[in-house]
TrEMBL record:
Domain Glucosamine/galactosamine-6-phosphate isomerase: 20-228
GO BP terms in the entry: carbohydrate metabolic process; glucosamine catabolic process; N-acetylglucosamine catabolic process; N-acetylneuraminate catabolic process
Gene Ontology annotations for the cellular component aspect, listed alphabetically: cytoplasm
Key words of the record: Carbohydrate metabolism, Hydrolase
Enzyme class name: hydrolase
EC identifiers of the protein: 3.5.99.6
Name this protein carries in UniProt: Glucosamine-6-phosphate deaminase
InterPro entries from the UniProt entry: Glc/Gal-6P_isomerase, Glucosamine6P_isomerase, Glucosamine6P_isomerase_CS, NagB/RpiA_transferase-like
Signal peptide limits: none
Organism this protein belongs to: Microbacterium oleivorans
Pfam family membership, one: Glucosamine_iso
Length: 252
């Protein structure tokens, strides 16, 4: 794993935006994997500034990692709505090319299979953007998820429900209990992965993902088996890494 460091979240977003822009720039039909949550927001802001300055992402196909089960797509906290608001519009993506798992589908098992097939039909993901949960989840692959898992319905961990209650007026009872998420195997099939993490609450998960054993108890640890993963961290998120992990400080 390559680890790049910046003093703060905004700097990490700039570094990650540089990596994303460089990877997609010369591809005739780029496929970008996009994540929700607060982790990638500095990256989206930095990328949006580049789009404003002339970077054209309108030919990019995008696949979101996950969606809640049980929220209508027009609920403001559905990932359909979040991706439209925080990714599609600011990055100038073509909404027709932006895909989000159908968490509201009557048959979610069929919806999961369709989603896997759509990614394959698009040629696979060129670059996957990831955040990381405080419990080490990626997408909504909670502890216990297999390395070869695919898009499927999962139950959210209590820690994730508590963490995400901030998007539901602080009321954990309003957070959906299940989600439709790309599996770890789906995520690992991306040709390149850029994970953004900032803040002290992520420091434990980051250290275990990088230095711990590969284990379903810390799903992000399975990223160790991918050949092209970059973690872009602020100092707080990197604070529990040992010096042996050789993080590289990058100027903004
Ligand atoms: N499903 C998402 C993940 O894709 C995200 O990476 C993670 C961390 O969220 P945040 O970046 O807001 O800390 O949890 C969320 O619930």
């Amino acid at each position: 794993m390559r680890i790049l460091l910046s003093p703060d979240a905004a700097g990490a977003g700039e570094i990650a935006a540089t990596l994303v822009a460089a990877s997609l720039r010369d591809l005739p039909a780029p496929v970008l994997g996009v994540a929700t949550g607060s982790s990638p927001q500095p990256l989206y802001r930095a990328l949006a500034a580049r789009v404003h300055a002339g970077l054209d992402l309108s030919r990019t196909t995008a696949f979101a990692l996950d969606e809640y089960v049980g929220l209508p797509v027009d609920h403001p906290e559905s990932y359909h709505a979040v991706i439209a608001r925080e990714v599609t519009a600011p990055l100038g993506l073509d909404a027709e090319r932006v895909h989000v798992p159908e968490g509201a589908a009557a048959d979610p098992v069929a919806a999961a299979a369709r989603y896997e097939a759509a990614i394959v039909a698009a040629g696979g993901v060129d670059l996957q953007i990831l955040g990381i949960g405080a419990n080490g989840h990626i997408g909504f692959n909670e502890p216990g998820s297999d390395a070869d898992s695919r898009t499927r319905i999962v139950e959210l961990a209590p820690r994730t429900v508590a963490d995400n209650s901030r998007f539901f007026d602080g009321d954990a009872g309003r957070v959906p209990t299940h989600a439709l998420t790309q599996g770890i195997g789906t995520i690992l099939a991306a040709r390149e992965i850029v994970l953004v993490a900032w803040g002290e609450s992520k420091a434990d998960a980051v250290a275990r993902a990088v230095e711990g054993p590969q284990t379903a108890e810390l799903p992000a640890s399975f990223l160790q088996r991918h050949a092209r993963v970059t973690l872009v961290l602020d100092h707080a998120a990197a604070s529990k890494l040992s010096p042996n992990s050789l993080p590289v400080e990058v100027a903004r």
